[in-house]
């Protein structure tokens, strides 16, 4: 049986990556009436702080705050993620079952090896999801557009657009704070480099910076391979594939 269709699917390497990079966008999208979902590729079992079981509980709590319809974990190896035919097919099957119109992927560059792999893995899986002879037990389906969440990465590409999350920023922070085992007392996480401030303050200041690029209080930046103008993330034009 196929899962219910979603409009916007966010995919990331680890539980908490989505909250950090595009959590505000998912919250805003859900409140605009779009059906949203998350796929976490790994369980985060090699994380220095906490445990995979605890992070699963934190991810569920965060999902409730963000209003996502489904949150799925593929159980791929943490700190050992690879873009191989087997992992592409596994992710492609999950994408076919959810049938998203828009897929939010990780950045194509990063300091965590899993993040780098995940960015291209998501793009490749979205493409092969449309190939009928790949995993033929599920009907082919290809998302219309892939966008990359590039929060905290300003060293390799300029954002194509920024989503205004001013009205939902505090909810984004609530979702992030669900990961107390990861973030309480921390000064860095994932792609968030340390500045000497508590992590929560770094996130707040970075979000204000992205917001300033579009003259709002808070924002989340995205990159696409297509030049585009965006007012509503659920109505993006120019197909990826």
Tag the structure with descriptive keywords.
7-stranded mixed sheet, 241 residues, alpha/beta, 7 strands, Rossmann fold
General description of the model:
It is a single chain. This protein has 241 residues and is of the alpha/beta class. A seven-stranded mixed sheet has the order 3-2-1-4-5-7-6, sandwiched between helices. The protein has helices at residues 17-31, 52-66, 85-98, 113-128, 169-177, 180-183, 199-213, and strands at 8-12, 36-42, 70-76, 102-105, 145-149, 161-164, 219-223.
Unreliable spans: none
- Helix/sheet category: alpha/beta
What is Rg? Answer: 17 Å
Taken as a percent bin, the fraction of beta residues is: 15-25%
Overall tally of domains: 1
Helix content: 25-40%
* Strand ordering within the main sheet: 3-2-1-4-5-7-6
Oligomer: single chain
Count of individual helical segments: 7
What is the overall pLDDT average? 93
Question: CA-to-CA gap between the ends?
Answer: 26 Å
DSSP, total strands: 7
What does the overall shape look like?
globular
Tell me the major beta sheet.
7 strands, mixed
Q: What is the CATH first-level class name? A: Alpha Beta
CATH topology: Rossmann fold
CATH superfamily label? LmbE-like
Give, in order, the helices and strands.
EHEHEHEHEEHHHE
Which architecture would the CATH scheme give at its second level?
3-Layer(aba) Sandwich
């Amino acid at each position: 049986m196929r899962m219910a269709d979603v409009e916007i699917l966010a995919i990331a390497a680890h539980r908490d990556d989505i909250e950090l990079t595009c959590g505000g966008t998912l919250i805003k999208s859900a409140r605009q009436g779009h059906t949203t979902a998350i796929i976490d590729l790994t369980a985060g079992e090699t994380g220095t702080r906490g445990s995979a079981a605890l992070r699963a509980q934190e991810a569920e709590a965060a999902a409730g705050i963000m209003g996502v319809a489904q949150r799925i974990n593929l159980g791929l190896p943490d700190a050992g993620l690879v873009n191989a035919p087997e992992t592409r097919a596994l992710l492609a099957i999950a994408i076919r079952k959810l049938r998203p119109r828009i897929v939010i992927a990780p950045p194509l560059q990063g300091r965590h090896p899993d993040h780098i792999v995940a960015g291209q893995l998501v793009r490749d899986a979205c493409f092969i999801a449309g190939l009928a002879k790949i995993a033929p037990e599920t009907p082919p389906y290809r998302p219309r557009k892939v966008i990359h969440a590039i929060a905290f990465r300003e060293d390799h590409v300029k954002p194509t657009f920024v989503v205004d999350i001013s009205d939902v920023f505090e909810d984004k922070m609530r979702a992030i704070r669900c990961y107390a085992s990861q973030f309480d007392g921390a000064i860095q996480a994932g792609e968030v480099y340390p500045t000497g401030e508590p992590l929560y303050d770094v996130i707040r200041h970075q979000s204000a910076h992205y917001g300033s690029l579009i003259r709002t209080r808070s924002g989340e930046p995205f990159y696409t391979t297509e030049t585009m103008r965006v007012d509503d993330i659920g109505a993006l034009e120019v197909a990826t594939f």
